[in-house]
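FIELD: query
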Amino acid sequence: MDTPLQGPDPATETFVAHRNLLFTVAYEMLGSAADAEDVLQETWLRWTGVDLAAVTDRRAYLVRITTRQALNRLRTVSRRKEAYVGQWLPEPLLTTPDVAEDVELAESMSMAMMLVLETLGPTERAVFVLREVFGLDYEEIATAVDKTPAAVRQIAHRSRKHVDARRPRRTVSASETRAAVESFQRAFETGDLQGLLDVLAPEVVYMGDGGGIKHAALRPIVGALSVARVFAGMSGKAAKGGISFSFAPTMVNGTPALAVHIDGEFDGVIAFHVEDTRITGLYFVRNPEKLSHAATETTPTLR
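FIELD: result
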């Protein structure tokens, strides 16, 4: 007789069902997709040793394991950031259009918001993410961060106040962001200084991350004219040197972005923050070690 096919065991089935949630929790705590994947691997190894019969809420239990592993990983990540060459930006994460439709999730994953989360301490960041992004109750969070519910409530209040004072103003729709990105792309491709000035907000901030491997600005560049000159200069130098820039529209961290190719080779990702139809933040990640989760199969739009 043929052996009947068996479905996945309950541990695997539960883990797979909640994997996207667990990955997002880890990513928003760490700002690194590679580290988030490592945390999920560690979570899985611990989950396989759990007696499921003794677990009343499997989702909460998995979130607790993931949060604790991410908190442990934060120590290593913090040491790496201290020794990092130049500006550190979160690892860009290729996302599907449906993420942009979830406005709160898209905002929490945006480059601008991820940088705000970097200003929180580890426990404060964990509490903020679990409470404000995923809506967990204080009792669930307390077990995840090994605090009392009363302590978690106070931490949540402090972290919310801290983030509210620093968070960017509400992001515009994906279509409005896409329009601003397209205007930026046209001006960048042609080296149109005025076109760049038209789409950049007066207070725009440009940050680049090359990790000491690729050339990038070592400090933030602030102001429309300064930022416009940087990108117009890039375009002009490329034209004189016979270098071909090309761009592929993509979705990164829940918002429209550009995948940048130089002479046909994938070089990096530019993420944007847009307010009132103008770009207030540009984040150009070129460090190859941060680009594995942002690689796109989209054919670039050639100049």
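FIELD: remark
The chain is about 50% helix and 15% strand.
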